[in-house]
Amino acid sequence: MIKEEKHSKIEDIREHLYDPKDKIPGHYFEGNLHKLKYKVSNDWGGDSKFNEKIEDNNMKKRKTSVFKIFFVMAVIFFIGALGFAYYNFKEGDNSFSNDKIDLKILGNAFTKGGEELTLQIEITNKNNASLELANMLVSYPSGASDNVTDAVRLPRDTIGTIKAGESIVRNIKVKLFGEENSIRDVSVSLEYHPEGSNAILTRDQKFPVTISSAPLSLFVDAPENATKDQNFSFNIKAVLNTSLPEKKPTILQVSYPSNFIFSSAIPEPTFGNSVWSLSSLSVTNPVSVVINGRFVGEEGDEQIFHAYAGATTENDQSSVNVVYNSLLHKVLIEKPFLEAKILVNGQDAPSYNVSSGGNISAEVSWVNNLATRITDAKIIVGLSGNALDLASIDGGEGFYDSANNQIVWDKNMIPELESIEPGQDGSVFFKFKSTSLIGLNNQIKDPQINLDVSIKGRQPNLGSTFSDVNNFSKKTIKILSNFQIATSALYQGGSMPPKAEKETKYVVTWTLSNISNTITGAQAKSLLPIYVDWGESLTGGSEKVSYNDVTREVTWNIGTVQSNTGFSSNREASFVIILKPSKSQVGSVPQLMKEINLSGMDSFTGISINNKASSITTFLPNDPNYKSESQRVTQ
User: Fold this and answer.
1) What is the CATH number of domain 216-334?
2) Residue 84: per-residue pLDDT
């Protein structure tokens, strides 16, 4: 018999479909199924298109509802925008902008230097809000300098409130200086608070003014090239164009490059070596200044002179405060055609410092820097100075002309000087001594020796013509001052001779001597041995002697020592020290002080001087009470 099926096929599929334990391959559960209601006919053969229509209608209904929401929001936004625009239109625009502040400066864009220039400043507030607590500030260059910090600032103009649409007009007067055709800026700044705000804002404007002519003009007449150690001269002329705008003194101030050594000027400077008074300057009477010196730089160095003319202050009449005009001049250091270098004791330096009474060896080294040969060369060295020992001059291969204090070398003495090829070099030598300054009845102030060297020759030109080639150089030898310290000690009290574990007191005296140059910042120092104690200073307030019980150092702060000290005047310091030797020192001659170190600055040479004095012992030959057996420690 065939077994009857309990369910139909559809029911069987339905049962498997919702069975969680269904194991039929290919079935996947992706979520819960929900019942959907469809309108269907009672018959199996109903039209499926009808169901599809219902689904499409449902989808269309969903899309339509989303569009409606978007449309409604757009309408609301549009209405709000119209309302906001209407409100702004009805109430007015109260927004604020710095660009709506019109700041105009009206006046002549050209002026003569030093003349009063009137300018009109117009401020217009084009905002719909007021400007509160408004202040106007005006500044302009005080002189011809471009230094922004050197400016004239007019008193602050307190305007107050500038209402919306209101214009404010102010008139100011300025005096501008500068070179002809230079441009100076007048700066105007408006500070204010926007209405209803605590913020401080500014509106700035500049008005350029061209200087049509300066109150005075400066001109320079000087070479653009120079050689090392040769004389260099330049002329600066001040010409007055109009009457000077200030009643303050007018001066010319020159700033020199670091490698320029000033020697003289015509007329002589009013202050130092770089300031001249222009009090005699007038429209019909220009002032000229001729400055002489030399360069010590190297080949290729560019040196710059800067000249200023202007008014001073009442407190300082040695520097320009308000610049009427200025100029600069550049000089390039180049090789000389026929070069001669002076070496002293084997060194090539701008100046030299030696001790008095010493031997000095010198050399003149020459070279032809031209591309052509030089013929008939001659070298001349002139010697001078208040510290030169004339009797010690030795010209070597040269001829010493004692009448003119010159040493001469030519082709008769040095054959190479007859014809010097391009790049050829050589040297000549000589010797001399400086005068000893010790023991002189009349002391020499600022002792020095000067060497002036000239080298000459002829450069062949076209045909049989020649042109002269020459070079000059100078060196200064400065003599150091003989700055010394002497020491002595005298028995004051206690055991004599000194006994072990007993005290003996001594008075120590330091004495200075200084011959020629002023010494500054002088100081003397020494150390006490461990078995010697400090007593007291005997100099009072006249000399400053101190003792450091930690370092055991005795210091004399001397300060300035004038020349001829120890001869026409005395400087000394005295103090007491206490010797307490040990039994281990019995039979010895103990030290009372270590060696003394003396230091100071020679103001003439600019060189630090350091000297020493030997240590002090119980051997006291200068003590009138001294006996030979008194120097050794006894039991």
Assistant:
1) 2.60.40.3670
2) 60
